[in-house]
Amino acid sequence: MECFYIVTVGWIFSVCLHEFAHALVAYKGGDHTVRDKGYLTFNPLKYTHPVTSLLLPVLFMALGGIGLPGGAVYINRSLLRSRVWDTWVSLAGPAANLVLILLIAALFRFNVVPQDPQSLAAVSLAFLLFLQVSALILNLLPVPPLDGFQAVAPWLGEEFYARGMAASNMGFFFIFIALSYVPPIRDTYWSAVLGLSNWLGVHPQLIATGFRTYREVLPW
User: Fold this and answer.
1) Owning domain of residue 133
2) Quick check: is 192 in a domain?
């Protein structure tokens, strides 16, 4: 039970951090409307939606350990000073995830949190790090409406961007199918997530234990 709450609260914090980073860079880049919309805060109510930000991400985390992007800030991209700023706005969210990943990894690297599978903190943070790595790699895919697509779209024309965003629901469907039923894509993705998590010094046993413990509170 405790692991579920630790990971879920950590996940909500990471969503706020991710979206705050988007908003902050957008503000610096010329879109001052983000301040009026209340995005320059860590208030989760400004970023989260009960279904898309909480229910679905928790469901995906429980089913397969996928860090599904769960929040959104609405950027007025026409106010940004240049396409470079537009790209940086999109990449700011994943950069925030990377900072959080490195902070969690440092806790293990410097033995602030021992790599003990009996430790609630260790297994919870290991699984949270795994989810953050999963979200980072997923978000950088050039598939609408993910940040990877939005980072390259300004350089490919407004029509390309509009068509891509119009097909964003299909993008999520494609990702789900690919990560579930297309072995080359699925295996490459999970190998990258596990490989990076292991490279950061987090033992796979801790991640597996955290995943199993996280799911214990669920009815299936």
Assistant:
1) 2-215
2) yes
77 is a domain residue: yes
Structurally, the chain folds into a number of domains equal to: 1
Tell me the torsion sign for CA atoms 155, 159, 162, 163.
negative
Q: Are 175 and 143 in contact (CB under 8 A)?
A: yes
29: three-class secondary structure by DSSP: coil
Q: Select from 177, 112, 104, 96 the least CA-distant residue to 143.
A: 177
CA distance 14 to 16: 5
pLDDT digits (tens, 9 = 90+) for 47-105: 666 655 666 666 666 666 676 666 678 899 999 999 999 999 999 999 999 999 999 99
Residue 61 falls within a domain, yes or no?
A: yes
Alpha carbon 156 to chain centroid, angstroms? 25
In a domain, 63, yes or no: yes
Q: Is there a catalytic annotation at residue 2? A: no
Q: Which two tokens stand for residue 46?
A: 């400004």
**8 vs 52: CA distance, rounded Å:** 14
Q: Are 176 and 105 in contact (CB under 8 A)?
A: no
CA distances from 184 to 16, 136, 172, 218 (A): 32, 19, 18, 30
Peptide bond between residue 69 and the one before it cis (omega within 30 degrees of 0): no
Distance, CA of 186 to CA of 103 (rounded, Å): 27
pLDDT digits (tens, 9 = 90+) for 104-142: 999 999 999 999 999 999 999 999 999 999 999 999 999
Neighbours of 216 (CB within 10 A): 9
Q: Which of 19, 158, 159, 216 is catalytic?
A: 19
